[in-house]
Amino acid sequence: MTFDLVLVGFGHVGRRFVRLLDELAPRLARAHAIQTQVTGIATRTRGQAFDLEGLDAVALAAEVEAGGHLRGGWAIRRPSARGSTMSFIRETMRRSAGRLRQRRLVIVETTTLDIERGQPAIAHVRTALSGGAHVITSNKGPAAFAYHALADLARRAGRCFLFESAVLDGIPLFALARTALPGVTVTGFRGVVNSTTNYILAKMEEGQSFDGGLSEMQRAGIAEADASLDVDGWDAAAKTAALANALLGARLTPRAVEREGVSAAVAERVQAARASGRRLKLVASASAEPRAAKGPRNETRRPAADIRGRVQLVELPAADLLAQLDGPENAIVLQTDLLGDIALVQRGSGLTHTAYGLVSDLVTISRALTGATPEWPRRGPRGRTPSARGRR
After folding, report:
1. What is the CATH number of the domain that holds 276?
2. Angle between helices 84-95 and 121-131 (to 10 degrees)
3. Is the peptide bond before 386 cis (omega within 30 degrees of 0)?
4. Which of 57, 237, 270, 317 could serve as 18's disulfide partner, Cβ 3.0–4.6 Å?
5. Beta strands of 74-170 (E only): which ranges?
6. Domain that holds residue 75
């Protein structure tokens, strides 16, 4: 199957994605019968381009990195008017009407996280799904702020809304829950989900300063020049909300997650924990806290529950899996009713990992269209079906 891809955002992740697609093209064709062509690209500062016959996305990535603007095809624009990206998405879908009917148009949303409302990424996703396109995104905002509305919209449209890159880069966390745990209920999770803060804490244990650890992550390209989302705990809070919404049936936003960050002021706590044989980690977690249900209970009514999300500094015993994570390593421990704890550990992270998550979502769409994967199982204390996919 050939997919037409329209990229909304063409930063580091988007550019690595098109290059990875080029590198993996023979493997995708051989193993999954997938071919791709990029027909549209919209950026915030480098213009827009569209060509129904395909753009040379790898060459355009090099052009953008060299400081140039997008060139080629229809609708080359330098962004000026507000809403130009939304107009571009709509016009792209209008010109791709035949591809939409064939269910082969995919919007690839890689804009940066807006921690206030998740916009404009949510609007991008909603517009694409409403128009009949599939959506894959590395942006945490849509799942953290509007998961259920967007998942319901995707089901009604018979399209996919996937976000494997949003939490653990390319590690198949959501795919695991969606396809590999039939009959299992995920009841909670705990994890270290922010590479920058975990690296800083590890360096502070060694006696390095907070600023020194942060600078190293910025030089490595993992932390942004403005790393406030990382060190203030907002990135972890957004990931916590996305996980809780998709896996537990919660309706959290990052603002509803109890949040703590990492700063130079925690140096003494780091050293004291280390001296006692423990380690201080920034742990993201969520779980169901039962509460009394109102009214009579019947066979179709499950006990009500509150889902609480937290991002907090926790002293962990040395034997704890999360305590053993060093540097930029991340991990998630899923708590389940039948299988106990299931852990996923990410020993390294980077642009390739994030870009791979988008590629894996593309493969998931292909499998969904051919009926090769089961529907997302029911899970979570509310008994909802948080499917990222629907079928007609």
Report:
1. 3.30.360.10
2. 20
3. no
4. 57
5. 74-77, 105-109, 134-137, 161-162
6. 2-180+353-370
